[in-house]
Amino acid sequence: MLNIGIVGCGKIADGHIEEIQKLGCARVLAVCDLEPILAEQLALRYSVPHWYTDFDRMLSKNRFDVIHIATPPHSHLTLAKKSAEAGSHVFLEKPLALNAIDGRRLIECLEHASRKMTINYWYNFETAALALKEFVAKGDLGDPIHIESYYGYDLEGGFGQALLTDDRHWVHQLPGKLFQNIIDHAINKITPFLPDEPMEIIARAYRRRHSKDDRMDGILDELRVMILAGGMSAYVTFSSNARPVGHFMRIYGTKNTAHIDFALRTMVVEEKQTIPSALGRLVPPFKSSLQFLRQATKNAREFTGSRFQFFAGMNRLMSMFYDSILHDTPVPISYAEILRVSQIMDEISAQVYPMAAA
Q1: 251-281 residue pLDDT tens
Q2: DSSP 272-284
């Protein structure tokens, strides 16, 4: 049984505890937050034995196998270093750190202490994403040519409104501001397929929405990124204005094209059309409908088996990470991949917010 500690008791910490409690190999011993009411209420709601406002004190009073860090990225390096020195592995909320340099230091701290780390790229561990990985590994896609990764965001939600109405919000202190806090979700889906070659990145951003208070609302809300690497290309789109709020990825190969909708949890394949003439234009919609029907049936089975919850991917990622600790197997996400995401984000931030980079 792994003993777990959590630092950072915001909204995402609820998801961490709920998924940990579904696993049979771990239990949450303590939570910590600088704000006492957040730590206390989280501990009470989930029957966690201890809560703290001082991370050093929490580490000194308990022995943890894993620390979940769910704080803003400014603190990730320091907290991960302290966790490693206390003998704990680390499950980290994205983004990795304030920048790729700190991210590399963070990983080096864990490696020096012979501790493991993973980051919460949980969408990549949902059923549809794993199906795509298998599809590509079997060669059914052919060679990847181009990827489109789209992530929509609703600034009318609670987090968005807090950000736009409070110029002291921690997101304003990030080099890439809103984008840096969110676009891991779009970029980390691309990196597993990009060749290990030098990248050319072109990023453009703008603010589309109208603001009633320019003093607190300098946040850009639309982002477009083009990436070129080793004869392959990728587009990343972040939009907080398009509706409905979408979340999908499309990967084009030399044999077929695959489309994953993360909101609907579906994966469909567009195959080369072999039927000639008008009949060839008539059949594909029926084939697509059949694929969606199969996906709906599969999702219904997931639902009845209690595997269709919102954080199903996080649950699978946690399980794999904990298993890597218990059985000394490789971590579910390579450190090279995690660092590459951070490096891409640094370049995007430098291009869209050049004054912050300077």
Answers
A1: 999 999 999 999 999 999 987 777 777 777 7
A2: PP-S-HHHHHHHH
d(CA 223, CA 205): 4
Mention every residue, 6+ apart, whose C-beta is less than 8 A from residue 155.
161, 163, 164, 209, 221, 240
Cα 54 to Cα 187: distance, rounded to the nearest angstrom: 34
pTM for this one?
Answer: 0.93
Whole-angstrom distance, CA of residue 114 vs CA of residue 307: 33
pLDDT at residue 356 above 70? no
The pLDDT tens digits of the residues spanning 6-58 come to: 999 999 999 999 999 999 999 999 999 999 999 999 999 999 999 999 999 99
The torsion angle over the Cα atoms of residues 349, 353, 357 and 358, rounded to 10 degrees, is 160
Helix (H) or strand (E) holding 16: helix 11-22
